[in-house]
């Protein structure tokens, strides 16, 4: 340990209390561990308990030239978890800043700190008997709302584009200066958090996917619970029908009949959310062959591509949307089905008549449907975490106990973005399929119609880190996949620790400007160096 | 003329051709003239014809330290027209960059240069027999789309928030460097212009309401023409019912039943769009008294506050939305009415039965309804320009010939933003009313429910610049109004040349950061100095 670092750690202790400065081996290892291989070393972990402490820590770090890697709760699973983008950093975790600072039922917003988790907000709204819904992701219920927003993550409802529903921020600059974005810059501004652009240049975007500041508050918009909502499902039988399916759904998303994100999982993806790798049936071989997948999944009624979306509104509005959807899809997709809470509760109790009504064999399907339905109305769930244990040979733990980092689950997400169109879907899928199968991984993907015009294809490379050689194979697969995707023009909507280097190659004037801005706001270069190439 | 300037002008001439460098008195006066008093002097006007020429001009300007004030087509009427934010600048007008560079029917976008006007895009879509609609403002058909986006202006449809529907930009930095924002930074990126956030920090907002770069291209999203659309109207009789009306409409806008901006004009506003100031009836007195306004407007059926919005979708979707609106409003507002193209064409020809059907006395009303209806589907119009001649004693010219700058029309817009709520509307209105009447101007306002949560109150101070003393009275009224509004927490969503000084008072860290950024990207300080306080 250098003298500089030691002095800095001492000062951190004075600022935030000794017990919140950790350098023990166990902690270090935990924070150096992701769901894929990384050789980043960290020097310690600090957990400030207030904005003032965050400011003090950054000032100290600047003085001693110690890099600080800021995380919210560190649940960035599949993208690098808590591991820094540079070597020899001190991780600053913000989980202790966990207050819900403001809430407005009439205008539909909440102001949170970085430690506020999905579950916490969900409980808060319940406790307030609020008529507002949040948007949730299918990742940890304990992940930070701000952490996800900072990475521009997405969910399932009308508010799926999380950064798109941010009304304002509070940010600590690397120099320790505190600022309010949007109208928050003016004391007493009534539309603070309400009108996001503010007056003058709009800067909130600078603090997402970046290292230009530490977000310490976000005002997040919420949606009023609609009088009714329905989940709907449809699928196509054959893999080759993907472009067709995308072309069918595109106009519905573009014209606003579908106001929420739509998710389309392939059979690998759906199967992987229902059970672990069938080691017995495959005799230990990987990857899972199409034939076996087809045979094993026969008992369920899913297709090669399975789309699900949701409708929100009055009874009449939903009826009208259903009609428009049916008109567009009927006869062209397999099993177009609508599902509401009433049908769900019936299904829970009366599985046989339900099967008779809808043709869906419930069985384990309900295990997935329940949380899927919940996500449609912003209910966070851990039910999808066990899918990170796909290639593990021991049984996955209960959802609440799942910890993929700890348990050696291998998982790397790659999430390229494309225009919503059949031709793009086809090209993307053929790259993914070829590349993953070549490296003996299942090409498990979900395609999200994220906005009116853009879709994101989330590819998971799933493996078992405890099997020798798998870490290296997965990274090789990842690197080849990323290279092929970007060469074809498909860039990820966010980067994992494994793909951050992509930015280092960027010689554009855009990158030049960002580097100038970084130099301006962080002259000591101490905040999360290397994040997104900065 | 200093030597520096002379040398710069020579170099501009070499770069872009002598005929595009203007320093004649007539041009100078035209560019120094707005619809309110300003004492800004300009040194000349340059009109580059390409991005390369824009770059060359900025490099030249930097070398000679000559401030450049960039405008698109300069139709920022009511906010300062073409007049620079600083003294002794050379105005760089981009009207010659008028290409429509890219267009995609399936994905609903168009890429335009700063010289592309509303009308040009409208004609282009018509010519292409496109099924896409643009969003239009009620200002000049000849105003630049980019000019409006750069000021974060708004319109009337689902795409009313213009900057909110930008998928990417091309920008020339003050140093002459060219950059593409969003995914455009990567050569060959398929989702360029489609997915706005890109990868890494999102920076587009930096180039709106700012002087950090010159926007030379914008990819603008368009909406698919819905199978059906309907305009709807409602009003409240008494001035005091404003909060009530806002509270009634708020939930409809928040829950997405109303997906487009809603406009609420008061009686002064509606009256002012139908005729000029009634000089005869008032015997030359100002302001217009409530009694006279009531008497003169009796023949039309408008209330103290008149709301109009629009519904888009399939027949079924519109029916459902209508039902939800009726449920919320019926019995609580006056004359809730729906109007579609069919009814409009009937009305054009058969005015008597129409009156019988709807209760609306058509007469001059159709003159307003036609362009209002057009704006609902993105048809630009000049029909509202004559309202800038409100206080003129000579008759307003035909809409196509209107030129408020030239004709000495007095007009200052002030556009404070507020959360959508009755209490805010009430407070805003009482400030506006008191202040405008005090200075003998009519408190003519329209309140736009711009987003799900925010409303913008556009106040116009209208006067006759050719009447001695009016210029000064109007500025005094403006300054007092702005001061009262901001003291109460209502900040404008954009600033006029008259209100730009507001930013000079801002001592926030936000402003500090912006100033640092300005210094970084424009070390010579030559691009539009003073805009938004930078």
Tell me about this structure:
The structure is a homodimer of 534-residue chains. The mean pLDDT of chain A is 94. In chain A, helix 1 (3-16) runs antiparallel to helix 3 (51-64), helix 6 packs across helix 14 and helix 11 (341-349) crosses helix 12 (351-358). In chain A, 33% of the residues lie in helices and 19% in strands. Chain A has 16 helices and 19 strands. Chain A is α+β, with helices and mostly antiparallel strands. Chain A has helices spanning 3-16, 25-31, 51-64, 118-127, 145-150, 242-254, 267-274, 279-282, 290-296, 315-329, 341-349, 351-358, 365-376, 422-438, 470-487, 509-521, and strands spanning 21-22, 42-46, 68-71, 89-93, 100-104, 109-112, 132-133, 166-172, 178-180, 214-221, 223-224, 228-236, 262-266, 305-313, 334-339, 409-414, 417-419, 444-449, 454-464.
Layout of secondary structure:
The structure is a homodimer of 534-residue chains.
Chain A: H1 3-16, E1 21-22, H2 25-31, E2 42-46, H3 51-64, E3 68-71, E4 89-93, E5 100-104, E6 109-112, H4 118-127, E7 132-133, H5 145-150, E8 166-172, E9 178-180, E10 214-221, E11 223-224, E12 228-236, H6 242-254, E13 262-266, H7 267-274, H8 279-282, H9 290-296, E14 305-313, H10 315-329, E15 334-339, H11 341-349, H12 351-358, H13 365-376, E16 409-414, E17 417-419, H14 422-438, E18 444-449, E19 454-464, H15 470-487, H16 509-521
Parallel strand pairs in A: 2-4, 3-4
Antiparallel strand pairs in A: 1-2, 5-6, 6-10, 7-11, 8-9, 8-10, 12-14, 12-15, 13-14, 13-18, 16-19, 17-19, 18-19
